[in-house]
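> tool_call: predict_assembly(chains=two)
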Amino acid sequence: MLGFFKRAAAPEHACELGRTLVALALPAGAAPPAGCQAVVVGTDGRTRRLQAARRIEARPGETAYAFHPGPYTADLLPFAAAPEIGLRTSFAVDAPDPQASQQRFDLYLAAEVTGRLELAALAAAIESTLRHELATGGLELPPCTTLDEWNAFRQGLNQLLYMRFGVTVDDCVPVDLGDTHDYARALAERAEGQAEAPAAQPPEAAAVERFDPALEDARALRRLFLELPCLMCGTRLAAMPAAQEQFHRQQALLQRLDLVSVAVNAMPALDLAAPGQPLPAEEQLRRARHSRRACVSLDEAWALLARLRQAGEAALPQLYDEAERIVANLEADCAGRRSITAEGDAS
Amino acid sequence: MSPMPDTVLVRCPLADGPVLTLTATRRPRAGRAEVKCAVPDDAHLAGRMQQVVRLARLTEPRFDTRDQVVLSLDRRPPPGERGWELAAVLADRMVRGLLRPQAGLLANGWSDEWERGRVAGNTLGAASAAQPGDAVLGGAGLRHLGLLSGHADPAAAVSTARAWFPLHSGGDGGMGWVEVSLHPLARQAGQEAPDEEQTIAAPDQDAARQLAVRQVLGGARHFDGRALGRWRTVVRFGAEAFTGNSWELALVMADRLARGREFVPRGRLIASGCSGAWHAGRVDAVDGVAPKCALLLREAGPGDRILLPRAWQEQLPEGFAEGLRAQGASVVCVERIGII
């Protein structure tokens, strides 16, 4: 009888939400902690948001996440080669957009998070996305940045993080990280490490072993399965090109993306060459590498979508060229994931 | 962006005199392997070349599966010869537009760590001194592929960065580069920091330029605040003879890049400028707007960042910035170094 009035115990670490933890899976029946919102993720990747401060009612097979919208602050290093200059970025999980059928952050939780999302993990993901965009030229942050270039960078960063993670950037300023990142000391440690290099061979071999093909492949395919439909939806919504030629390119791209999506949905199991016929371990490794590389293309596609949102008509030919590259990479990696032997090297 | 060439030739000089020619072509992939290699009478070596090129491609941030690159050697190299490896990697990058194509480039280098972009050395031995100045030789001349666009090796214990500056003193001109290598300065506890100018060396330069290099770097580091007493510095120049002091800005920027305190350009950093007060971070004007701008328009490639003194802003030729942007480079006239 007393059970009626007993409050569900707060799950462990729940008080870290909003500080070092962004999202946490909750057991059924628990109430989300104060200030948090709840999202229920089904096994098929569908998500729904729950009303705040209600008990979480998850059906069997569903996982309920509570997340704290923030704001959070992280120091991002935009360039690996420049560890003493960083970007102090504060961001928050976006308020729900009533027009969208699925919030981007919910999709991120469903596709890439298992169990809990640490702030450090999210910041690392944001940082690697930012570095990749800077290295490939999607964003520009050159030496002696002018005010105009900085504003263009900020707009691109806002759009990128919104499209990729569903977070909005409140503030982003360049900071001198000399206090926490001493490059001279890092180099001295590297020199000491290289002096012991002959002994350091075995750990490298161990690093190869740590790549678990089954786990990596399952993660990558889940991302492809869940995110490709949303990407296509975003591309259709993004911009209707006015020029006839660009329109045809867009249509052709969407058609190819459809085919990639079908290929992903019907991807054969990692460890089978044919029904009942196992695949050798090195071929499994190759397949997992292909699916992981397809995820890189997926990240690039989100970044490109962010650029498409901002681009004028004049920039479209270049962006569609980039899109054709990404789709071609996706097709090649899906074909590689599907095939049972490495393609003929001599051709 | 300038149209990419379909064919690139890179030549590889060998120790005993002959020169190998490596040809790279690009064509639509159409379901074939991304790299195809051919060596006359040696299928094993062709396989090795494909492996080298694939490993070197792992250091690139973006990949494109739409094209196939076909590499071929004109004849079979002597047994055990590995100097062609660098030529193959450079040809593969040039034909895909990642490096600026250079007609008649000479390259020789080998490595066991192409996947990290390292170049271990060259096979020329004593003959390396006889090569022309613009030959790309692995080892002391080029330890890391990123250095071709001035970037530091992300795993090395010595931070090395390059910046370029336009020359117009010696008749035909061209681009010179300055390279700054930084070693962390080991200091015992309680020991006084040595005088900053004593830790800076510029070997193979005359006394006047050594002094100038020391004063420029000392001043610019003073401006930076957190730079004094932490580094041992070696400065090298690419060009043998040049005059004037417009290299100062390039030197200062290369130093900032090497110390990890500056945003990194995607391509090369090209700068022209001097200063009477580096300790205030100010950039003053230099001579030769017109010839230098014409040179920059010819030389700039995708991702390059060009820094010019603020005083040139009004004197830039018509359409200069637009022309550079069309080539993928960006230009800015700066009053002082540092962000905004």
